[in-house]
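This week, study the protein below.
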Amino acid sequence: MTKFKTIAALLIVTLVTACSGPSKSTVDEGAGGATGTAGAAASGVGEGGTGAGGAMGGATGGSALGGPGASQENRIIYFGYDEFAVKPEYDVILQAHSKYLSANPAARVRLEGHADERGSREYNIGLGEKRAQSVRNVLLLQGAVSDQIATVSFGEERPAVIGSDDEAWSLNRRVEIVYAQ
């Protein structure tokens, strides 16, 4: 429960700072890197492309909520156990990313789906892909273009937190939004 309170507090702080002006963050350095690992499933557009600045916040682009300048907590979408439906609490964040993508046609994003360690490797790769596709569908419905979005599933292979308890598992059930440089 404290994790959700922490996330809620971070979202409030992020909203307040987003209203104060454009972000001065830089593009994610790892966005243009290799995405393939043994067992990773990928679909969509290949990596590469360039991010674009401009319409939503200066040379680095985006805001605290969306685009490559988004804070780390606004580039991760968490999921419930064995679920792949996007929760309504992420609507504002995904709308900001969609707005950035639709305003910057040259921008490219990779959606990296993850799962916790429970379940078989194959099942978790599939679940990570379903989660990435769910986020992709939301972005497409809100104005992003299919060519801008690639998906990849790492299943349980790249945990955000090492551990075998509810808190670690909840932090590993996620989709990370990674902008290409």
User: Anything to note?
Assistant: The mean pLDDT is 76. Residues 2-179 form a domain with the 60s Ribosomal Protein L30; Chain: A; fold (CATH 3.30.1330.60). The two ends are 36 Å apart (CA to CA).
